[in-house]
Amino acid sequence: MLGEREEGELPLSHTQTIESLLLTKKDMINKQLGELASNKRIWDEHTVVNQVDKIQNGDLALIIDCGEDDFFLNVNKDFHDRLLGRKIDHDFITRSGEHNGKYWNNSIDYQILFFSKFFAGE
Q1: Cβ density class 31-61: b for 16+ within 10 Å, e for less
Q2: CA angle 98–46–114, rounded 5-degree value
């Protein structure tokens, strides 16, 4: 279970936990879609930016939070632009930083606020 460890094993930091969960998520995606290099069409069909035409405004609460030096920045900007084009409400945040634990540790406060307001019906 998450948080359990063997005797003598050091606990994971928040950054290590997030990074290990992301690696697990990537492995799960590869298992479902196959490796990107040999299954590009399938990946493209399932990429979030290509799903925008399937949702209407109000269907989802969306937050996009990306560092200015993140390798996903242009993809997220494209997603943001497509959402704007379809008039789908969303929060789009960029700040200095990369795709790493330092950025995520900072951004989690903003994301918790976003979801707290969502679940409170605000």
Answers
A1: eebeeeeeeeeebeeeeeeeeeeeeeeeeee
A2: 50
* pTM of full prediction above 0.85: no
> Read out DSSP for the chain?
-TT---TTPPPPPHHHHHHHHHHHHHHHHHHHH--GGG-HHHHHHH-GGGGGGG--TTS---EEEEETT-TTHHHHHHHHHHHHHTT---EEEEES--SSHHHHHHHHHHHHHHHHHHHTT-
For the chain, what percent of residues have pLDDT higher than 90? Answer: 44
Q: Compute CA 5 distance to the chain's CA centroid, rounded to the nearest angstrom.
A: 27
The pLDDT of 43-69, averaged and rounded, is 89
Whether 15 shows a pLDDT value over 90: the answer reads no
What share of the chain has pLDDT > 70, as a percent?
78
pLDDT at residue 3 in the model: 46
What tokens does 97 get?
A: 């930083």
C-alpha distances (whole Å) from 107 to each of 14, 64, 98 are 13, 11, 11
